[in-house]
Amino acid sequence: QRILRLAEMCRRLETEEEKVLPFYPSSLAEWEQQNARRVLEEPPTEPLALALQDYVGLEQFWKRFNKAKLEEKALEQARAALADRNQNLRGLLQQYLAGVAINQKMP
């Protein structure tokens, strides 16, 4: 039920581009895409692959979910980098203000 609710939320939050193009561009080379198509056309033989065929409908959801998680992690890393930079700038500002205060005390 939670996954279905998340899928519904994802559908509501889709951009126009995602609604028109419901797939993500592949980063694979042409020959890699051909190999992948060939493998996907073969009937599955392993039990896990057979079981996963029941969940093909959720593939788009998991793509979007994973994309959102990756973006979330990237934002966390960017936020941490900005916090470090902010701390460094605050330190420099304190050093500068301390230098200005010393220069004002000297006649």
SSE topology sketch:
Blueprint (H helix, E strand, L loop, with lengths): L1 H12 L2 H5 L9 H12 L5 H6 L6 H47 L2
Summarize this structure briefly.
With 107 residues, the protein is mostly helical. It is built from 5 helices and no strands.
Write up what this structure looks like.
- This protein has 107 residues and is mainly alpha-helical.
- It has one domain.
- The protein has five helices and no strands.
- It is elongated and about 90 Å long.
- This is DRC2 protein.
- Keywords: Coiled coil.
- Residues 68-95 form a coiled coil.
- It comes from Sylvia atricapilla (blackcap).
List the keywords.
107 residues; mainly alpha; 0% strand; elongated
The H-and-E topology, N to C, reads as HHHHH
Mean pLDDT: 81
> First CA to last CA: what distance?
74 Å
Portion of residues in helices? Answer: over 70%
Put simply, the count of helices is 5
Q: State the total count of DSSP E strands.
A: 0
Low-confidence stretches: none
